[in-house]
């Protein structure tokens, strides 16, 4: 597999982010609350959402510039990425998406958006177990097995 140049990887990451993650993390939850008023604590929800977006963008940047790939499974990184937030948890990009959704749930005090976040989390978990982890093990072998042994899947821990 050819290694993508950083600008090509960035362009692919932007496209994937806008069309896939932007839809899952922002468009659908905001569509769910389109007729709702924001809660009194909406600034907290906005900060949580922005933190999730920031984490996702950081991870996508690492995929583009370090991994020479994108978040899209069809154009995944060619170089194993274990820097930045990946030092503390194996799936920070998914955590960023879920954090963004939870921020919207907080901002609108929406049980429906919270339920949506739970469904997305379940889908992510089964995707990681059924596709991503086996694929990464096939692709990166012993280095990924060691990474999986030492870095938790979902709950970050200090190293």
General description of the model:
The chain is an all-alpha fold and 159 residues long. It has one domain (6-150). The chain is built from 5 helices and no strands. Helix 1 runs antiparallel to helix 2, helix 1 runs parallel beside helix 3 (92-108) and helix 2 (42-65) packs antiparallel against helix 3 (92-108). It is globular and about 50 Å long. The relative contact order is 0.16. The mean pLDDT is 90.
Outline:
By secondary structure, this protein is mainly alpha-helical.
Keywords:
159 residues, mainly alpha, globular
Give the arrangement of secondary structure elements.
Elements: H1 6-32, H2 42-65, H3 92-108, H4 111-140, H5 142-150
Helix pairs in contact: 1-2, 1-3, 2-3, 3-4, 4-5
Distance between the termini: 32 Å
Q: What is the radius of gyration computed over CA atoms, rounded to a whole number of angstroms?
A: 16 Å
Number of helices: 5
> Structural class of the secondary elements?
mainly alpha
Estimate percent helicity. Answer: 55-70%
Number of separate domains: 1
Overall average residue pLDDT = 90
- Biggest sheet features: none
